[in-house]
Amino acid sequence: MDPDSSGLPRPLYDALHREAQGLMRRYDVSERTVVSLLHQSENTMFLVRDPARPEPVVLRVHSQNLSYHSAPSIASELMWMQALRRDAGVIAPEPIPARDGSLVQLLSAPDLDKPRHAVIFSFLTGAEPPPETLIDNFERLGEITARMHRHARAWTVPRTFTRHAWDFDAAIGAHPLWGRWQDGMGVDPEALKILTRLAGVLKRRLERIGTAREYFGLIHADMRVANILVENDVTKVIDFDDCGLCWYIYDLATALSFLEEEPTVPALIAAWLKGYRKVMPLQREIEDEIPTFIMLRRLLEVAWLGTRRHLEFAQGLGAGFTAGSCRLAQDYLRRFG
Question: Tens of pLDDT along 191-208?
C-alpha cells in the first residue's frame, strides 16, 4: 500500500514506520528485515519480511483512539485468540512473542502523536471471498461463528482477562466507543429525526431481550467479509481487535456490515443460520430480532465513518451511507416501531 494513500499525515506515518522498523530489534529476526505498509484502517498494519524466514508476519500498531487499546485489554484479546486456536480449531493469526516473551509492545517517540501499542501476528494466506461466493461462504461463516460462541460459553476466563462490552450505551448510547452517530457524515435534521427514533426503538427492544448468559457473551464483534480469508475450502478469521461482550447474534449483523441494502441479504442470513445450526441451536426469540441487531450495527457504522473521515474507505461511502441508513431505518420502523 502506498503510504500517501493511508490517510495519515506524512510526518506521522514516517514516525510510525520508523518506530515499527526499530521494533524489530526486540524480535528474533535478521538485520535485513523490512517493514512496509500493508493496510490502514482503525489501526496501522505493516507487513514484515525477513529474508532469513520463509513467511512474512504482520505487525499491528494500534491507533490508541479506543478505550480498549490498553495493554491489558489487548493481552486479553490475544488470550482468546490463542484459546480458539488451541481448543476450538478456529484458524486465526498466532501472536508472536518478542525475545523476552512479551506479546504486547509499546512504541513511543517525541514525534509520535501518542504512545501506541503493537503486536506481531503470523501471516495467514487466503483472500476475501468474492461476491459470487458469498452465500456459500456465509454458511461456513455461520458454522465457524457458532464454534466460537460455543467456546466462549464454556471457556474459563483467565483472572486477568478484561474486555469491553458492546451494550447499547457503548455502541450508540451515552458512552459510544466509536463516537456519536449524530456526528456521522450527512446527518442533517431530517436524518437526525429518523435515526433518533430508530435509536429509541432499538434501546427498548434490547432492554427487553436483556443480557442473560444464553444471549450475551464474548464475541468477535467484527465478522465482516473483510475479516474473513478463504483458501480453497478453508475459512480463516482475522482482526479480533473489537472482540468483547455482546449479544451473540450481533456477530451475524457484523457479517452484513456495509451490505445491508444488498438484495442478497435474506439469502445470506439464511445461509449463516444454516451453518450456525450445524453446531448449536439459536433461540427463536433471538432469530426474530435479527433486524434489530442489523440496525444496531448500521447505526454504529454511521458513527465509525463519521469519526474516520480521513480514511479513503469512509470518504468513498460519505453522506450516501447515512441516506441509505435512513431508508433502512424507515423500513425497520414500519415493522418494529
Answer: 999 999 999 999 999 999
Do residues 35 and 59 make contact, with C-beta atoms less than 8 angstroms apart?
yes
Pairing mode, if any, of strands 57-61 and 105-107?
unpaired
Residue whose entry in the numeric block shows the C-alpha cell 507487513: 47
Angstrom CA distances, 327 to 274, 285, 300, stand at 28, 25, 16
Mean pLDDT of 16-24: 97
Q: How far apart are CA 206 and CA 261, in angstroms?
A: 22
Longest pairwise C-alpha distance within the chain: 62
Grid cell at residue 119: 503486536
* Rounded distance between C-alpha atoms, residue 102 and residue 166, angstroms: 28
Helices (H) and strands (E) in the chain, counts: 10, 10
Averaged confidence pLDDT in the chain: 95
- Domain ranges (residues) in the chain: 3-122, 131-336
What is the CATH code of the structural domain delimited by 131-336?
A: 3.90.1200.10
The CATH number given to 3-122 is 3.30.200.20
Highest-confidence segment of 3-17, 225-239, 259-273: 259-273
| Distance from C-alpha of 210 to C-alpha of 258, rounded to nearest angstrom | 26
Which of 6-20, 253-267, 300-314 is most confident? 253-267
pLDDT above 70 coverage of the chain, percent:
99
